[in-house]
Amino acid sequence: AQKVTQAQTEISVVEKEDVTLDCVYETRDTTYYLFWYKQPPSGELVFLIRRNSFDEQNEISGRYSWNFQKSTSSFNFTITASQVVDSAVYFCALYGNSGGGADGLTFGKGTHLIIQP
Amino acid sequence: SAVISQKPSRDICQRGTSLTIQCQVDSQVTMMFWYRQQPGQSLTLIATANQGSEATYESGFVIDKFPISRPNLTFSTLTVSNLSPEDSSIYLCSVVGQESTGELFFGEGSRLTVL
Fold it and tell me: Which of A38, A40, A79, B115 is deepest in the core (most CB within 10 A)?
């Protein structure tokens, strides 16, 4: 069984602070993929990043960075110099392909990030 | 990336009625997924819809309550039947962006409120 845990239900920071969203996962698959999605108040889900289990290199994209630690089964997401527009719910998700073919993602419960001006 | 359009974007319905949500994709896709997001909750997969076959439902979801159609490779509908306030949720259609990695693209969602 797969499981994604986002222990932080809600985080509130002041604009320009750095903030890290935690994600811990469980899977028996040796090959799997991890995702982060952003859901702003408008409701749509925006794909942010995909990381496969064989690639533990950290990734940086502008103010966003991701830290994949296979040893601790974590895939944390950091926003540097946060902005009000970053306010959203962020979901971590997992896909394991042991069954062959896509059968949907397992989502964490989400972290509601509030950036105060 | 695929462009996914959902209709309606939001609706308010009376208890006991049904609502059909449409999902249109701008390219042909093999699999389409329907998710539910209850207020303040994460996303839960309802069913997988393949063209030409019956949808595959996840545990806790049944065809009588959530009938799905998939008439072609670019379109699907999800009906939520015999509505109750507990059905108030966002319903999201999604398609596979890259099958080998499970990456999904999502529609804008259909926000349903049942009175």
Answer: A79
